[in-house]
Amino acid sequence: MANLSHRTVCLPALLCLAWSDAQASTWEVPSAAGACLLWVVALASACCLLLRRSFRIEEEVERLRSKLYAEQQQRADTEAALSETHAVLARLVQQQGRERDTERGRIARDIHDDLGQTLLALRIDVSLLQVSTKGLHPAIHDKLGTLAGTLDHALRSLRAVLNDLRPLALGEGLCGAMQRQVREFSRLSGITHEFIADEHALELAQREPALDVVLYRVLQESLTNVARHSHASKVWVRVACEEGCVCLRIQDNGVGMPTDPVHYGCGLAGMRERISAVGGDLLVESAPDAGTLLALSLPLAHETVVR
Known about the structure:
By secondary structure, this protein is an alpha+beta fold.
């Protein structure tokens, strides 16, 4: 096409030059017809030049269009690969979380059945000895009382460790476990609370693998952060089912979070990891002296959403 357009342009120009040379060699003044022919040839040459430039522009546009299509295709392939990689990583994190919770539960059961029972038996023996020495050996009686107090403290610490490994309260149901956690938070911190929960939403969450643990752990971590850093006087906890998701909102009236994300610590990152592993979303809103809102939504399987 380029060679053809080049010849098309050159032919009128050559004819024009040949005619001009003929006129110059005869030293004759060109007639009106010859002048018209000269103008026609010149216009034809200009048209051919414009046509050639148009061809070049079309070729350049086509080349750029092909390049753009190739880049768009490459970008689409890259995005598909990234999406697949993200899905694989999410499955791996979720599987790791399930295996971790399973292992933590096994360790908790072993500690409870072995160390817990041993400490409890020792506590009973010490109590019996303390009763038998009452009034007979005051020094031994007092020492056994001190030992009994130490064993009670050890049992409480052991229960706390077991609850951290695998929340024993979840065996009683998610709703009861969350209510107990909020009440215990208020008792220890002195911060009042308002707990509103849709029992149907909690039932749906309990049917889903790992969702009950995620909800409970996020609530536990959030309340711990409120007690440590917020200086709040009240916290609101609400659980509901919205658009196929279980939603948990935790809000306090404290001092808010620091504006620099570097000071958030590892707790928030751990929550994001847990929530992302089950396909959920986490939103954190905070302002100085305006409290903090933590809202998460966890998707439910379609078959469990329908009543």
